[in-house]
Amino acid sequence: MSSYPPEKAGQPGHQALPTRSTNDTVGYISDEDAVPESVDTNDSVSVLTERLQAWKHACGYLENYISATEKMQKAHAKEYEKVLKTINDPLKEGHHFDQSLGGIAGLFENMRSNTKGIANSHMETSKSIGGQVLPILTRLHAEIKNKSKEMNSGAGRGAKSVATARNSTQKHIELLGQHTAGFDSAGHKADAANDPYVLHRGAQHRLHKQVVEENNSRNDMIAVQKNFEAFEAHVIAAFQQAFGAFLQQVGGQAERQKAMYTDMTGTAQKIPGEFEWMNFLSRSGHMLVDPDAPPREVQHIKYANEDHHSTKPLIAGTLERKSRAMGGIGGYKTAYYAVSPSKFLHQFESDDNYKKDPSPELSLYLPDCTIGAVSDTKFNIKGKDVSKGKVGNSLQMSHELSFKAHTASDAQEWHRIISSCSGSSTTSPPVGALTSPISPSDQKPPAYEHQPAPLQTGNLPQGHSPGSASAGVTSGGAAPGSAATPTTPATASSFGKGPST
Fold first, then answer.
1. What is d(CA 267, CA 103) in angstroms, rounded to the nearest whole number?
2. 182 pairs with which residues across the strands?
3. Which terminus of the chain, N or C, has less C-beta within 10 A?
4. Closest among 266, 261, 262, 267 to 105, alpha carbons compared
5. What separation in angstroms does the CA of 343 have from each of 361, 410, 428?
C-alpha cells in the first residue's frame, strides 16, 4: 500500500472539517457556523405569537370593562325607575299646595319628569354602548386572532422548515466527520456511498438548502416584524376610537344627568318662602283663626241650661267649720259653702271656678241630716258626708259638724235655709255656745242658767222637730256676701221638702 504525504491546509485536496466559532456579538453569524445557535427563528415566532396573545387579552379586558359598564347603565335605569316610584303617586293632602307652577306641586312634577329622563338616559346609554362601542373592540379582537393564525401559518411554517433543514445539514456534517476521521487509518479506502468527497458535496447541498430556508424565513420574519409595528399602532388606534365613543356616551349621559339634577335644584330654589302660605290663605283663610277678632271671655259666653233654676244655690257664701281632728283643737277653718236646690250642702275650698275643678270637699244630703238650733253665730248639723262616691259613702259614718257664720243674721239665714231642706231639727244650741239675754232685765230663763247639754239627735223621729214653731228660724234679708235670695221661713211641716221659690 502506497502512502501519500499528508495534505497541508490551504493546499488542494485538503478538506478541513467545519467548526463552530464563538462571537460575543448578539445576532452575528460567522461564515464557519453551519448551524447557528445565536438566533433561532422559532424563538422569534414564539415571542411574537405570545405578544399577539397579550394584545388579545388586553382587548378582552377592555371588552369586559365596556360590557360591564353597559350592564351597569341598564341596571341604573331600573334603579331610577324604583326611585321614580317613590314620588310617582300624587301628594297626600296635596290640596294644601298650590297646583300652579312655581310651588311645591310644581316642584314634584319637575322631579318626576327629570327622574324619568335620568332613567331613560341610562337605558339609551346602555344601548349606545352595546351598539357603538363594543363592536369596535369585537372587530379588533377578531383581527388579533387572525393575525395570530397568519403568524402560525406563515412565519411559523417557515421556522419549521428551517429547523428541518438544519437537522438534515447537521446529520450530514456529522456523517462526513466520521468518515474523514478514519480515512487515513483505513489506508484511504472508503466505499462509494461514504466517500468523503461525495459526503462533502452532499453537505454542501444541504447547507445551501438550509441557507435558502433561513434567508426565506428571515425575510418573512423581517416583514412580520415591520408589519407588527403598524399592526400595534392599529390596535392602539382602535383602543382610542373605542374610548372616544365610550366617553361620548357615558360623558354625555353624565352631563344630561347633571343638567336634570341642576334643573330640579333650581326649581326648588326658585320657590318664594311665602308662596305656599299666601296661596293657602287665599284658598282656605276662612277656615283659620281671625287674628283681628277679640279673644273670648267667659262672661260673654252663653250655653244651654246655664240659667236653669236647679243651677242656682238657695244660699252660698263663706262659713267657718270646726275641725274634728283631736277634739277640735284645730279651731275653725273658713271654706265656701252652698245649698243647692237638690238639698245638698256642699263645701268647697273657694268660690273660684277657674283655677281647678270645683269638686266638693264635703257634701251633706240635708234630708238625711239633723240641724240644731242657732246660738248667736253658731249652729250644728249632724249627718254623713256623701262626696266620696258610692263605695266611699257606704263606709262613712254620721258626724256632728259645728258651723259659725260671720254675723248672727247670717247664721239665722243659713239656719233657715238649711232647716227648710233638712230632715229634722232640734232646739238644742251648739255645744259651748255663748247665750245672750232675751229681755232687757238681768233675769235669764232657766234653760240658759247652765251650760247647754250636747245636741241629742239619736232618738228623734225622721221629720219631727221638737219644741214650738217659735223655736225655728226667722225670716230675714240675705246675709252679706250670700248669693241666695231670701226665702220665706220654713215650718216643721215642710222638712224634707224643697224651699218655696
1. 9
2. none
3. N
4. 267
5. 16, 19, 23
Question: In the β-sheet with 399-404, what is the strand arrangement from edge to edge?
Answer: 362-365, 344-348, 332-339, 315-322, 399-404, 378-383, 370-371, 424-425
The C-alpha atoms of residue 36 and residue 2 are separated, in whole angstroms, by: 40
Whether 337 and 330 have beta carbons less than 8 Å apart is answered as no
Q: In the structure, what pLDDT confidence band is assigned to residue 37 with cuts at 50, 70 and 90?
A: low
Which CA distances in Å does 34 have to 66, 149, 179, 220?
53, 31, 18, 21
CB 416 within 8 A of CB 473: yes
- Packing angle between helix 196-269 and helix 134-153, nearest 10 degrees? 180
One-character DSSP codes across 448-479:
GSSPPPPP--TTPPTT---S-GGGS----PPP
Question: How many Cα atoms within 13 Å fall on the side-chain side of residue 11?
Answer: 5
- Specify the pairing of strand 344-348 against strand 332-339: antiparallel
* Pairwise CA distance, residues 313 & 13, whole Å: 166
Closest by alpha carbon to 432, among 454, 400, 456? 454
CA distances from 329 to 324, 377, 473 (A): 8, 19, 29
**Sign of the CA dihedral with 166 first, then 168, 172, and 175 last:** positive
Query: Can you tell me the distance from the alpha carbon of 81 to that of 492, in angstroms, rounded to the nearest whole number?
Result: 93
DSSP string, 121-174: HHHHHHHHIIIIIHHHHHHHHHHHHHHHHHHHHTHHHHHHHHHHHHHHHHHHHH
Give yes or no for a contact between 496 and 423, defined as CB atoms under 8 angstroms apart: yes
pLDDT of residue 99: 86
- The reported pTM is 0.51
**Calpha distance 463→370 (Å, rounded):** 9
Q: Give dist(CA 383, CA 401) in Å, integer.
A: 8
Which set of grid coordinates corresponds to residue 55? 394584545
DSSP class of residue 324 equals: -
Query: What does the alpha-carbon distance between residue 475 and residue 473 come to, in Å, rounded to a whole number?
Result: 7
- At residue 430, the 3 state secondary structure works out as coil
